User: What shape does this take?
Amino acid sequence: MANISLVNVCKTYKNGYSAVKDFNLEIRDKDFIIFVGPSGCGKSTTLRMIAGLEEISSGELWIDDCLMNMVEPKNRNLSMVFQNYALYPHMTVYENMAFGLRVRRTAPGEIDARVREAARILEISHLLDRRPAALSGGQKQRVAIGSVIVRKPKAYLMDEPLSNLDAKLRAQMRVEIAKLHKQLNATIIYVTHDQVEAMTLGTRIVVMNQGMIQQVAPPAELYRNPVNKFVAGFIGSPTMNFLDVDVLEEDGTVWLLGQGWRLPLEGYQARKLKEKGFAGKRVTLGIRPEDLHQEECSRKNGSDGLNGNDSGWIGVYISVREMLGSEVLLHGNTGDTGRLSARMPASCRVKPGEFLRLYVDMPQIKLFDIQSEENILFD
Assistant: This one.
């Protein structure tokens, strides 16, 4: 397989638009790397530069210690899976999978062995005589993947391969692609805007925004320790709650003050804020919906919740309730301009228009510099 290095790679178009800026990444052999980010962040452009379908404006691309900038796509020994399947409608599944090998004048016996082995791995042996029009979306995607498996490339490049499938098929294909990575023991570079795909498939995730890398880390680390507010808000569903709060140090205790509520900080969090000079300043508090917990379920539009003297909770007036089967998503406002979402068990009976105390799992909170949006607690 392959080790791939991108060194200071940039892509600038003739109109001056910079799609990718100073991209640096080491992709190790057998990595499953995910490029994730919003539309237009440069993830597909980066993948196409690796494949050779886009010219690199500046910087270097290395594959196994060979500089690839000027190497033709066909000579890079990489295979790419596109989101639109790219199957020939007049050919059978077998012929589609064999086509690339026939172009390379591979021996017929070798072609047959490779096609049937790929079909076995993908569980499509019974479909080899069908044409694409007779296949479901999931089956077409397996054939498209099979067409690149047979080539035995150094690395597999996948550009949003599941985006044309419905939700059920996407979930099934995620499992299949994860199994395929283990079976092939391959290097895979995968582009998606779907953070669920990113979190479930990747060994490492590259979060991109506006053509730049924001953070590279394993999924769990991205979730627990985002480098900035963008990564924190992009990773996780529902998205992280953000509230601007004042930092107050009083009688040796550091407090986060909202409008009518306050949260105490202890240990590492309090020490970090003081060390970095945030006492007496304003910061952005980040709380994931799953880190908000309920003590008592509700109180009808009372006015006492937001102005209580105790601490450790945030009062929320619920405006929307989403029932998701085993859980409920509650959305509301904190009495000022803040909006809050919380993930609750299905047993929670709070209704829109009611008031709820939400207790915060304080060790899990994030704190961000309002100006730079960097995670103040980042390690």
